[in-house]
Design brief:
The structure is a homodimer. Chain A has two domains: 150 residues, Aspartate Aminotransferase, domain 1 (Alpha-Beta Complex), CATH 3.90.1150.10; 274 residues, Aspartate Aminotransferase, domain 2, CATH 3.40.640. In chain A, 39% of the residues lie in helices and 12% in strands. Chains A, B: It catalyses: 4-aminobutanoate + 2-oxoglutarate = succinate semialdehyde + L-glutamate; (S)-3-amino-2-methylpropanoate + 2-oxoglutarate = 2-methyl-3-oxopropanoate + L-glutamate.
């Protein structure tokens, strides 16, 4: 009980900090007073340690029916609002992780509540169709209002899927079909192809590969997993495919001090990509496509320069490989552009772009030439869920109306500036501060320190996420504003000052 | 216009048939008068050919952004109720395909509408959590009310997933982990395993396989697809894995006339299963599990005897392979038991059972020994969707309250009896009538005849589905009653009588 009381007093103090304290290393926000009272809360409010007693009780119960060791705590989503996640013990936390980067405009957004209350939308939530054969009347219209209104330039086609893994799996398939049709010409499928594919053998099942990068994460189903190289726990014991894996640049920070080294590092990786394509073709394994994240997220928030990606795109074109950009985590606006790869300034668009998470539905955009040449080739029962398309249309409306891309740039700058300042003050705890928009991160000395910092922050009312082997990543919602950044920075500054 | 008028008159006539005509080959239902007026419609009502003009217009629009050639017609789900699907041209059809077998209790069921209107449920639909780390307070409770209340005997553990493919993919992974842990003993993972798995190589990524059956369908992501052998269109151009594929029995009908032949056929297939396990082990590819559907659905509604499956289960145990039953299409009650494999009378439960479709959420049940030994091993961002769990809990309540398993047995008998009668009268059009519960099907002479019958039936107000190369399958909802069976049989009897 003593610790609970202490915690409460501390929280109370912290809540006041962001507005009252103006001396020393306090981050002051002009916008701090501007709070959407109907929606967002005005700060964290901690009542117990997290996980609290009720969470622990529920964890035990869940653990009876599945391995629940990954559960952080149980949530009260009814009470969660805006940037704040409320747990079952009544703790209210500023959420900078947003369900592994998948809550676009905050919890319980009024627009979405309204949408769900409209009688004409009821049917969409309870009558889930097989979209590929029996779509609802407004299917195309909702796709145009939502996904197509933010489609990356040059990509006119879109397929929806239920999750990120299915998005990448089906994008691979579209690429393999495209490549085979190029090879085959005139679409004359042979009897041998039709028969051999039924028993998993070439030529019907050709020996094609996707080239991926060490440190990348593209999902956990078997096709995706063959391109995922983030952590051993994601891969161990699962049979895989002999597909080429290139090194991803390991940049040195601060970038301005290591311009030449980083250029060399990127050139080395690009050279390896080309070597692998040639080497695998020699052993009759054709690299049909290259998959890459704009920022390797699960693998540790690894960035590369825009120039690196432009050159990678050139290599793909030169070797006739499809260029697939996985925007499952980076997409949706958090980098300040709707798609992170829009920062690169490509002269030739990506061929395929996959999405999920903040987009509420999975799926992929692609150029017209990647369109399957027959029905039922890219297909499954549900092909996504129109109730997610409906919500996404509303979310995109909010993003546009509230100018949330510019907000991500602005709030991201506040966050990054603060993190750089903390790095200068606590270089033994914080290094390699990096980010684009609010998609920020930093490194800690090691895994143990990282996890300890996350736990302490949580008990002070801030939910953070880890990635890679020692990084902390920021994945707030799109309604994360400057004053939330300052609120976090003040709390975290105190944590670092007292860290032992 | 003439055809429209004719169609209307005919429909009107047909609607009366099921209740008025009592002579000749009319199927009369005691229950025909008992119609839940608030919910189900009382018969088909056709206004145009299907697809009608509005559907055709929408198909053209959709085809601009994705290949829409598989679309049958566009639907008005707001107006669809019970067993009846209404299209955008105002046609109302008795739906015996139910969105590829995925609508459990009919369209716009009042219980689900009510559920969605309750203010306390709003949050579940708009705040989608990352269930593996931040589950909602009622997560375990809803799983207990829904999935666990119908868990196959002996399977105490459950994981939820977003779709059928993800369910099978993750079931495979749980099996591979289980097998490797058996081999490894004491869970001492080596440094070599941890390193090699990151580059897709053994021993970290062992050369394990799932054994599957020719004609089986288990999904379309790359792991699933390696076990799918239904149609070439599902497989062509996608690289695959060299995994063993056994023949599935091809039974002769009527079963009572071919007892010995069918026994021999099943024995042949079982022998091949054992041979393949041994053969693949010799070439150092370990069969970690066997996957099978209780009735091969997409592949053509291929049945085998309960004895066949009991013996297959024995073979799995004998060789130390996991026994995975894919109930994605057969599960949820349509065979008269909640799980089709419950008909077999296994003495040792299946090890893993996957589900999706009618269950509204994907996922899998498994024995405790298949539980991952660490967190994050079976994991993804969403791990299903609690809004689907919420609806499933309601659906299962309805199934129990309204005794819908017995209904499936009863209505299925009415359907099967009628189909056998039609087979006797039209043996040149209908053969191999088979089924369990309402999960019925028959063969037609060829693909062209099958497709023509489906098209004619649709224009007479009945939606049917095809499977395999010449079969028609019945996949009605669980609220499909005897009088719906008789309504269909009368319409179809006329179609067959006039078929040229």
């Amino acid at each position: 009980m003593a610790s609970m009381l202490l915690s409460r007093q501390l929280t109370c103090c912290l809540q006041q900090n962001s507005r009252l304290l103006v001396f020393g290393h306090r981050y002051i926000s002009q916008a701090a007073a501007k709070i959407d009272v109907d929606f967002d809360y005005d700060g964290p409010l901690m009542k117990t340690e997290v996980p609290g007693p009720r969470s622990r009780e529920l964890m035990k119960k869940l653990n009876g029916i599945q391995n629940a060791e990954a559960v952080h705590f149980f949530c009260n989503y009814e009470e969660s609002r805006g940037n704040y996640l409320v747990d079952v013990d009544g703790n209210r936390m500023l959420d900078l992780y947003s369900q592994i980067s998948s809550i676009p405009i905050g919890y319980s957004h009024p627009s979405l509540i309204k949408l769900l209350q409209q009688p004409q939308n009821l049917s969409t939530f309870i009558n889930r169709p097989a979209l590929g054969i029996l779509p609802p009347e407004n299917f195309t219209e909702k796709l145009k209002e939502s996904l197509l209104s933010v489609a990356p330039k040059g990509l006119s086609q879109v397929m929806t899927m239920s999750c990120g893994s299915c998005s990448n799996e089906n994008a691979f398939k579209a690429i393999f079909m495209w490549y085979r049709n190029k090879e085959r010409g005139h679409n004359n499928v042979t009897k041998e192809e039709l028969e051999s594919c039924m028993i998993n053998q070439p030529p019907g099942c050709p020996d094609y590969a996707m080239l991926s990068f060490m440190g990348g994460f593209h999902g956990r189903t078997m096709g995706c997993l063959a391109t995922t190289h983030s952590k051993a726990i994601h891969k161990l014991d699962i049979p895989s495919l002999d597909w080429p894996i290139a090194p991803f640049p390991r940049l040195k920070y601060p970038l301005e001090d290591f311009v030449k080294e980083n250029q060399q590092e990127e050139a080395r990786c690009l050279e390896e990509v080309e070597d692998l394509i040639v080497k695998y073709r020699k052993k009759k394994k054709i690299v049909a496509g290259i998959i890459v994240e704009p920022i390797q997220s699960e693998g540790g928030d690894n960035h590369a320069s825009d120039d690196f990606f432009r050159k990678l795109r050139d290599i793909a074109r030169k070797h006739g490989c499809a260029f697939l950009v996985d925007e499952v985590q980076t997409g949706g606006g958090c980098t300040g552009k709707f798609w992170a790869h829009e920062h690169w300034g490509l002269d030739d668009p990506a061929d395929v772009v996959t999405f999920s998470k903040k987009m509420m539905t999975g799926g992929f955009f692609h150029k017209e030439e990647f369109r399957p040449n027959a029905p039922y080739r890219i297909f499954n029962t549900w092909l996504g869920d129109p109730s997610k398309n409906l919500m996404l249309a509303e979310v995109i409306k909010v993003i546009k109306t509230e100018d949330l891309l510019n907000n991500a740039t602005h709030a991201g700058k506040a966050l990054l500036t603060g993190l750089l300042d903390l790095q200068a003050r606590y270089p033994h705890l914080i290094s390699r501060v990096r980010g684009r928009g609010t998609f920020c991160s930093f490194d800690t000395p090691n895994d143990a320190t990282r996890n300890k910092l996350i736990t302490i922050a949580r008990n002070k009312g801030v939910v953070l996420g880890g990635c890679g082997d020692r990084s902390i990543r920021f994945r707030p919602t799109l309604i994360f504003k400057d004053h939330h950044a300052h609120l976090f920075l003040n709390i975290f500054s105190d944590i670092l000052a007292n860290f032992k």
